[in-house]
Amino acid sequence: MGKRRQYTRKEVRFRSRADGSRSPEEAFDGHMAIGRVLYDQQLFKEALVCFKRACELQPTDVRPHFRAGNCYHVIGEFKHAKEEFVLAFDAAEAGGNQWGYLLPQIHVNLGISLEGEGMVISACEHYREAAILCPTHFRALKLLGSGLLGVGEYKAAVKALEEAIYMKNDYADAHCDLASALHAIGDDENAIKEFQKAIDLKPGHIDALYNLGGLYMDMGRYQRASEVYTRVLGVWPNHWRAQLNKAVSLLGAGETEEAKKALKEALKMTNRIELYDAIAHLKQLHKKKLKGKGNGDDGFIVVEPSRFKPCGDKTTIRQELVTALNIRTFQRTTRLTRCDVDLLKREMNENETPLMYSGNGLPEKSIRKASLEVVLRRLLSFLKPETFIGAVKAINLKILTVLDETESGRVDLGMFFAILAPICGGSPDKRKRVAYDSLLWRPVTEQAGNGQVKKIDVLHYIKLLRQIYIPSQGASELLEIHGDTDTSLVSFTEFVTMFDDPDWGFGIMSTLLRLETSDRNRHGKQSCSVCRYPIIGSRFKEIKSGFSLCSQCYSEGKVPPSFKHDEYRFKEYVKESDAMKDKCLWFSKSSSGTTTNL
Predict the structure, then answer these.
(1) Cα–Cα distance between 321 and 75 in angstroms, integer?
(2) Helix or strand or coil: residue 527?
(3) In the predicted structure, residue 583 carries a pLDDT above the cut 70
C-alpha cells in the first residue's frame, strides 16, 4: 500500500509536468512514458489514467488505445478493453502500413477480451486473422485451437494446435488442449501422450492432470484415474471437483470405503446437493451388499424396449422418455428455458438482418456464426461468460452443424429462431406461434402473403426439427413422403396440426413440458432399485414385482437382475408438491422426470 501511495504522489507530479509541456506531442510522449513505467510496476489503474490522457491528446494514434486496452483487460473490465482494442484496430487500419506490425497483436488481444465476455466464436475470427497476418504467430494459432475446442469444432482445433506445436514444441498449454481435442474425436491413445507431454513440460499443470484423470475415467481405468486426481489435489488441495472425481474413480475401482472418505472430504469443500445424493447412494449400496451377502444380486440387466409395457395410456412410453430426457439435458446446458420465447419475437422485430442470396438464388436472412453469437448473447444475457461458452458449444454441436451442413459459416436466422422456439420458456401455444412467425419472417416465404407459410417450408422445418432433436429416429423422409413440390399455403391452425403430429411432427413436446415442471421434485426417501439414487421427477413402479425405477434407468431399460420376466408393466407416479409427501399422483401420458447422477 505504501508503494502504491508513493507512486501515486510521483505520478500526479509527473502528469502535471507532462500536461505543462510546450507542445501536445511532448505531453503525449510524457504520458505514454509514465504509463509504461506504472504498467511495468503493475500499477494498472494508475497507468490507465496516463494512457487515457494520451488517447485524448492523439486520438488517432494506435499505441495509447492498445495499452489502455491491456490495462482494462488486466483489471478484468473486458468490455472496456474490447472498446479500446477496436479503437486501436480502426486507428491502425486508417494509418496504413505505419502500424501494420501491431495489427496481429491487436487482433489477438481483442480476441482475448471477447473470450473474457464469453464470445469465443467472435474471438476465433480475430485469432484466425492474426495468424493470417503473421503466419509464425504460434500464440494466435494456439488461442485459435483452444477457442475452436471450446465451441466444439474439434477437427479444426486439432489442426490449429498441431501447427502451434510445430512452431513451438515446448508449448505445454498447446499440448494440453491438443490432447483434449484428440480425446473429443476419439483418439484416446494419442491424447494420453499429449497430456503426458504437457505434464513433462510443466509437472504442476493442473488442467493437463485433471483432464487426464477424466480421460482415464472415460476409458474405465479407474485406479489410474484416482492416482492422477491425487496428483491434482497435491498441487491444488481445495480442488473439490478433483476430490469428487477421485471418489467416483475409487468407486469404479471397487474401493468403496476409500470412495466414501473421498466423498466426505469433497463435502467439506463444497455443500453441493450432488454430494449428498452420492453419499446416500453409497449407503444404499452398502446396505444392499450386506443384505445380499455376496449372492451376486448387484448390478442390473438391460431389457429390450418391446418388453417394457406402459400400464394404460397415462404412463410415458420408454422410447419417448429417452428423447425427452435428451432434449431436457440440452435445455439445462443452454439454459434456454430461462429465455422467454417472446425474446425471439423481439429480436426479429427490433434488429435488422441483411438479406443474402443462397446457392439456389433465393434471398435469406442469413448471418455469420460470429454474428449469431452476438444474438445469442442478447438472448442469454443472464448467463455468466463461462456458462455462456458452454451454451454456445452445445448449440453449435446440436443445431448449427445441421443448419450449416455445407460449412459455409452462415446460418439462416429465421430457421434458427424456429428451431429454438419449441424449447424456450413460455406456454406451448406461444412457442408454436413464435415458431410459425419465424418461418413467416424468412424472406423465402414473403411470396406466400396473407400471413401464411408455404407448406414446403413447414415440411422442411419439421424435418430439421426432428433431425436435430430426435436423431435416434434418423432424418425424417417427410419431404419425400408428403411431396417436395407442394406450393400450397399453411395457416397457423394447420401448422399446429402438423407440428403436434406424433409420428411426423414434434409430438414429443408434450412429454418435454411435463419434464420441465416435474423433474426437480423428489419422492422423499424413495430410491431407484437399480442405481440406488434418490428418485427425482417421475417414479416408474413395476406392477407385478413392485420395484421402482428413476426416469433415467427406466429410459435405459434397466431392471434389477433378481426380477427376470418376459414382460414388465409400469405405472408412472409424479410427486406433485411438498404438501403431498405421502401421496403420488400419476399424470397423463406425457408426465416424466429425470435423475441427478454423479
Answers:
(1) 47
(2) strand
(3) no
Report, in angstroms and rounded to the nearest whole number, the Rg of the chain calculated over CA atoms: 29
What are the cell numbers at 564? 427376470
CATH entry, 2-241, from 3.30.70.3040, 2.102.10.10, 2.40.50.100, 1.25.40.10: 1.25.40.10
Note the pTM of the prediction, 2 decimals: 0.82
Round to whole Å and give the CA distance between 270 and 79: 31
| Of 126, 163, 246, the residue nearest 177 (C-alpha) | 163
Q: Which residue has the cell 470412495?
A: 259
Taken in order 120, 121, 124, 126, the sign of the CA dihedral is: negative
User: How many CA atoms does the CB half-sphere of 274 hold within 13 Å?
Assistant: 13
3-state secondary structure at position 558: strand
Domain with CATH 1.25.40.10 in the chain: 2-241
Write out pLDDT tens, residues 222-265.
999 999 999 999 999 999 889 989 988 998 888 888 988 888 88
Task: Specify burial of residue 299 (Cβ count, 10 A radius: 0-12, 13-18, 19+).
Answer: exposed
SS3 call for 534: strand
Q: Which cell goes with 306?
A: 418391446
Do residues 591 and 521 touch, judged by C-beta distance below 8 A?
A: no
Beta strand spans in 330-487 (E): 356-357, 363-364, 366-368, 410-412, 453-454
pLDDT for 441-464, tens place per residue?
987 545 555 678 999 999 999 999
